[in-house]
Design a protein that fits this description.
With about 400 residues, the chain is an alpha/beta fold. The chain has helices at about 20-25, 40-45, 60-70, 90-95, 110-165, 175-205, 215-220, 225-240, 265-280, 310-315, 325-330, 335-345; strands at about 5, 30-35, 50-55, 80-85, 100-105, 225, 250, 260, 285-295, 295-305, 350-355, 360-370, 385, 395. It has 12 helices and 14 strands. It is elongated.
Length: about 400
């Protein structure tokens, strides 16, 4: 059922040119609801993931329109149509800037109302088709990649466990077997964690408010403090797993500061970029990690002198795309970089790759800084903490 929510004054309900009356006349098969207050509209839209919202601007101000846009912008299968008091360019421009997908002007015309609504429903239908196509592609990639990523370490685990159970290994072979078991378990854990994170971020694309991060991220309600210490810790942990601690040169700020990002997402981004630098460069070649901040953003750049990517590889960074696996024996499901991009997009950050074949790769991420409340005592003594909400005194250790 195609749904339409009309926001208009109850004082006009007896008139013939009301939104409810007009839409009911021209599109009788649609499910139409009318409310008078913004609060009622928001409550109704909490249950709605697709459809149209028609707003009579004779009774709703621009601030209310912006509030509606904030609610709908992360629901691509919904459209906001504004009904202007009159055909006026300034009105139309203000409505578009506040988030309107389309406009109609009084006096209402049946043909214009019908055409505008059907045009927006056609746009929604196109988006739905694209979502279905994307889901199908992701499903195909999962079915192609995940069996290998799970089967390979599982086969190794089963094989070595059987050998150990049968006491078929010499004493000098057992340490190698234990290392392989540990490595396989770690690989399975990483695959599962990435898959779960990817699924979470895909859910955020559909309804970010469901995970309480939508507008809090953009308005600075989430923050991670102690970026210099945290980056150093994550870098050392990751580099140690590849035995590459001696290859890296750090260029970090001396002072601590906060970024607008949850700590678990900060950890993933930094660890993933360093992991890629290690995977796609040979041991004993240099890796540079540079992190600086100004008054607005934190900029992190990781450069290696490794294999590098082709331009086509960079263009097709998407879920489960693996680069040169047959050449470099790459492990992993190939969606680490897409997850990085999704995380940064969530917080209003930026992501850039510069790479040339056999000349190395430079990856740069830019994250907004978070303003810290200077009234909270003692936060500077904590190495890194995640705060929610940012303002106030209810800060929680990460």
């Amino acid at each position: 059922m195609k749904q339409i929510l009309c926001i208009e004054s109850t004082d006009d309900r007896e008139r013939q040119d009301t939104l409810l009356g007009m839409v009911s006349t021209v599109l009788p098969s649609f499910l139409i609801k009318s409310v008078s207050f913004l609060e009622d509209a928001i409550a109704s839209l909490q249950e709605q993931t697709h459809g149209l919202v028609l707003v009579d601007m004779r009774h709703v101000n621009i601030a209310a329109l912006v509030a509606l846009d904030n609610l709908l912008r992360f629901r691509p299968q919904m459209a906001l149509i504004v009904v202007l008091p009159e055909a006026n360019y300034a009105f139309a421009k203000a409505a578009a800037e506040a988030g309107a997908h389309d406009t109609i002007a009084y006096p209402l015309s049946e043909n214009e109302v019908r055409t505008t609504i059907l045009r927006q429903y056609e746009r929604i239908r196109t988006i739905q088709q694209e979502v279905q196509r994307t889901m199908h592609e992701v499903a195909l990639r999962i079915s192609h990649v995940l069996p290998h990523e799970f089967r390979t370490p599982l086969n190794g685990l089963i094989g070595f466990i059987n050998l150990l159970r049968q006491d078929a290994l010499r004493e000098d072979e057992k340490p190698m077997a234990y290392r392989y078991l540990e490595s396989s378990i770690h690989r399975l854990h990483q695959t599962a964690e990435k898959f779960l994170l990817y699924a979470e971020l895909e859910q955020l694309n559909l309804d970010e408010q469901a995970l309480d991060i939508t507008h809090s991220a953009s308005s600075g309600h989430f923050a991670t403090y102690g970026m210099t210490s945290l980056t150093t810790e994550i870098a050392h942990e990751t580099l140690a797993t590849f035995d590459r601690l001696g290859d890296v040169t750090f260029y970090l700020d001396d002072s601590e500061y906060a970024v607008q990002m949850r700590a678990q997402h900060v950890r993933f981004v930094i660890a993933e970029l360093i992991t890629n630098a290690c995977k796609f460069s040979t041991p004993h070649t240099p890796i540079e990690l540079t992190m600086k901040h100004d008054t607005e953003v934190c900029t992190l750049t990781i450069r290696d002198n490794g294999y590098g990517f082709e331009a086509a590889d960079i263009e097709r960074i998407g879920a489960f795309n693996q680069f040169g696996r047959e050449r470099f024996e790459q492990q992993g499901v190939g969606f680490g970089l897409p997850i990085v991009r999704k995380i940064l997009s969530l917080y209003g950050g930026k992501f850039d790759i510069q790479s040339k074949r056999n000349e190395g790769t430079s990856v740069t991420v830019i994250v907004p800084l978070a303003p810290l409340s200077q009234t909270e005592e003692g936060y500077a003594s904590v190495q890194y903490i995640t705060m929610h909400p940012l303002q106030g005194h209810d800060w929680h250790s990460n």
